[in-house]
Amino acid sequence: MYGLQISAAIVGLLVCIGKASGIACYNCSSEHDPLCGDPFWGGSQYLINCPSSCLKVKRSSTYGQKFHRSCFKAEIAGPMLGGAMDKHCVTQYVPFQGEVTQCYCTAKGCNSGPSSHCNLITLTVVCLIGALTFESYIL
Questions:
Q1: Is the bond leading into 39 cis (omega within 30 degrees of zero)?
Q2: Which N-terminal stretch is annotated as signal sequence (predicted)?
């Protein structure tokens, strides 16, 4: 029984270990792809791995709206935005471009990055399967 608990713990740890060395961000421009506008439904073809944070730029003018999504370096944005990088948007008027809103984010849910947090349901299912498998060998 003690061996079963150790095996279940090892399997649980393996489930919790993620390979999320960065963050997955969408990378597209509505100038080249109309599907990149708002609302944006995403898709795996737009995902790229970024080192630290994501960027979304919205330009609004009399000619309409344009969107750009890509990576952004948090090391640069942190000092520019006062250090708070969970989610931050800056809106300003740019001559001949109109209103430009830039949003930077690194918080969970702002992109499609793989989570390195352990999902309790996944861990429970894996442990139950492991326990049932090892129990059949013991009995």
A1: yes
A2: 1-22
Place of tokens 């990149």: 36
Query: For 101, which DSSP code?
Result: E
Phi, psi of 96 (to 5 degrees): 70, 0
Identify whether the C-beta of residue 81 lies closer than 8 Å to the C-beta of residue 90.
yes
Residue written as token pair 């948090």: 74
Angle (CA) 61-105-120 rounded to 5° is 140
How far apart, in whole angstroms, are the C-alpha atoms of residue 88 and residue 95?
23
Q: Checking DSSP bridges between strand 87-94 and strand 98-105, what pairing results, if any?
A: antiparallel
Reported pTM = 0.56
Residue 49: other Cβ atoms inside 10 A:
14
Task: List pLDDT tens digits, range 10-54.
Answer: 434 333 334 445 788 889 999 999 998 888 788 888 888 888 888
Return the number of other C-beta atoms located less than 10 Å from residue 128's C-beta.
11
Q: For the chain, list the domains and their CATH numbers.
A: 1-18+116-139 (no CATH), 21-114 (2.10.60)
